[in-house]
Each structure stands twice: as structure tokens, then as C-alpha cells.
Amino acid sequence: MSRRTVQQAAILDVLESAEGPLSAQEVHDRARELHPTIGLATVYRNLARLEGDGAVVAVHLPQDATRYEPAGRGHHHHFRCVKCDTVYELDAGCPVAMLEGATLPGGLTVMGHELVFFGHCAGCNGAAA
Amino acid sequence: MSRRTVQQAAILDVLESAEGPLSAQEVHDRARELHPTIGLATVYRNLARLEGDGAVVAVHLPQDATRYEPAGRGHHHHFRCVKCDTVYELDAGCPVAMLEGATLPGGLTVMGHELVFFGHCAGCNGAAA
DNA sequence: CATTTCGTGAGAACCGATTATCACTCGTGG
DNA sequence: CCACGAGTGATAATCGGTTCTCACGAAATG
User: What is the number of domains present in chain B?
Assistant: First the structure.
């Protein structure tokens, strides 16, 4: 049976309080502030376990490492700042949801979709290029 | 100055006649049928050059190597078959285009977006799982 | 035709992300 | 409180994708 460890709690805490899905590296960086000796391998192991337990879900965005966010947040999409590479979770309703289950011309049956916005976040909007 | 080579022509030909954007590996496989001795390094080199010349554009999809398609096809999106991993170009109008240039709540300024559909293609629809 | 230089092809090298290894530590059942 | 096995941390190994290296072949120039 799996044990509860402070490392796992720290990782979940970091994910819960993040602005969006985080990469293993980002989780590691932030978790170090709660638990300075935590190792990167431990982060990967716990993310895999938490995903297996259904507590977190993996998020795959283009040109980016695998990110993780807490499960149970419903259908939503993401925004990546092209300057600082921060990824934000978007709350707005999905403009593409009506296409779920549809069959497009050419016989393509839609089972899911991924929508990502790119741009500048508030912090990077005014800053110099 | 850059020379015109049969390899470069073969690569462009392959991209022009593809069903969607191709990875370097896929370009290599298909180009071998036109020019059996072409090497993978040559494919990478020419894709980089063609992209620099503006003749092809790179397409980045989640969980996937960089793909390339001919430039000048206008705004469109893609569909990846989760079974055979083939990526198709979609002609349909974009349901998200109106968000270009918008500023979302939170101060996120949208400069672009990427929309990818996942599902089964016609060939994989009826086939066994 | 000779030259010069760029492009090619094969394989080695590299890269960032992720996983495996292994000795050590700590949480937990007894 | 103790023993033991799961979890940890540091590092090496691995992986797919991509780039580099280098000797050879082929296109433009005189």
C-alpha cells in the first residue's frame, strides 16, 4: 500500500495553488520551497503515481514537456505566454465543444480536442521585448 | 548561393502531395520512394532551409515531433488519428478566429492559437481496436 | 576541362525529458 | 519501540528527435 509522504503532499499542494498546469521541473522548483531536499526523480515518481490514482491529469501542449494539473477541473483550455512560457488555465467556456462526437468531412470522427492560446500575459504585456 | 537539388525537389513534392503536415521521418520515408538514396540528415537540412526561405512552415502538435507543411495555405487546423497517428489538414473554417487580438480576463493578450482534434480517421474507424 | 564550393549520405554526437539504479531513510504495522 | 519494506535522493542510463562531422559527389564558374 502506498504511504503518505511529505513530498507527495508538497507536490499536490504546489499543483493546487498553481496558475495552471506545471511541468515536472516547475513542480520540482516550487516544491523545493516547501521541502528543500526533494529530488527531481521523486517529483516524477509521485506525478506518475498521482496520475495513476486519478488525482492529477497530464496536459500535453505543443513544444513543451508534459504538464500536470489537479484532476476534476472540467473541460477547459490553456494559454501560454510566449515570453515567459508560463501556462495559465482558462475558465472561459469552450467554443469547440459542440464538435465533440461529430464526424467531419472525410470520415474523421472527433473524440477530443486540444486548444491552446499563445500571447503575452499581464506581467509580460508592458515589459520590454 | 543555394543550389537546386533533386533532393530538395523531392522533399517539396512529398509535402505538397501529403494529406497533412509530415514529420522529418515521414518525409524521409516518402521521399525515399522518389529518391531512394536520400538521407535523413538531408531531409532535416532541407526542411530547415525551406522554412528559412518561407516555402514551408513548421507545425507543432502536442506529443509529437515537428511537422512541416507547404506555406501559404491560410489559417487552418489539424486532426490526428489516435490509432495510426496520421495527421490531416482540416479545411473547415476556424471557430476560434474571432478571439485573435482579444484580451482575455486576467490581462492575457491573444496573439495566436493552436487547435487540434483527436479521433479516428476513415481508415481506422471500422478497423479492430 | 579544372576549379571551387556547396550539398549529400552515413553515422556519431548531442540534447532535454524521463526512467532506472542503488544505497539510505522514514513511515507504518506489529 | 523495531523491523521491514516502500519511498527518497543523487546520479547514471536511456530515449526520440535533431544536429554535427567529414569524406565524397555534383553543380556553377572561368
Answer: 2
